[in-house]
Amino acid sequence: MPQNTWLVVGLGNPGAQYAGNRHNVGQMVADELAERIGAPFKSHKTPSRVAEGFLRPGGPKLVIAKPNSYMNTSGGPVSALLKFYSLSPEQLIVVHDELDLPFDTVRLKQGGGHGGHNGLRDIQKATDAAPFLRVRVGIGRPPGRQDPADFVLKDFSGAERATLPNLLSDAADAVEAVASDGLVAAQQKFHAPS
């Protein structure tokens, strides 16, 4: 695989009952990216569905993946994809929900702790804690005393759903910016005060 190839993994849980959950926002961003490059998801030798294409002619290649595993066991599929495409963890962009960011916020980082996110924890274990790139999609904290584990497995509220397309678009833009311009330039763009 050429150096200008990126494995973009949208985290979530498989199955229609989880499709609209906050925890599945990574897979929603993966859908947005696949639509942009005009590539359908297909079943793959690794335990994932994969869409492949170029951001633009001569631009970076994206291998967009949605693991068929549950969130907590995302590491195996990610490791298998890296191996299949001969990519290093430095070429991995994981898109995931982030409780510690307000809803409708996108932030980019490389490495760092998992913050209790079991999908990230499993990927870190599977990649020997190599510092992969992360697009963190803010879903906010649960209201009151609601358990975060319950909160992430609930669908977005009506008010959130009205704004969700913009959030997904911003997160997809962030992935494209990282792939095209690198992390620092993308951070300057997405972390600037609006």
Automatic annotation (TrEMBL):
The residues annotated as site (Discriminates between blocked and unblocked aminoacyl-tRNA) are 13
Q: Which CDD domains match?
A: PTH
Give me the residues that bind tRNA, please.
18, 70, 72, 118
Q: Where is this site: Stabilizes the basic form of H active site to accept a proton?
A: 97
Please list the GO biological process terms of this entry: protein quality control for misfolded or incompletely synthesized proteins; rescue of stalled ribosome
Q: Which GO terms describe its cellular component?
A: cytoplasm
Catalytic activity, per the record?
an N-acyl-L-alpha-aminoacyl-tRNA + H2O = an N-acyl-L-amino acid + a tRNA + H(+)
Q: Which family does it belong to?
A: Belongs to the PTH family.
Self-association state and partner proteins as the record states: Monomer.
The free-text function statement in the UniProt record for this protein reads:
Hydrolyzes ribosome-free peptidyl-tRNAs (with 1 or more amino acids incorporated), which drop off the ribosome during protein synthesis, or as a result of ribosome stalling.
- What name does this protein carry? Peptidyl-tRNA hydrolase
Which species expresses this protein natively?
Answer: Agromyces fucosus
The top of its lineage is: Bacteria, Bacillati, Actinomycetota, Actinomycetes, Micrococcales
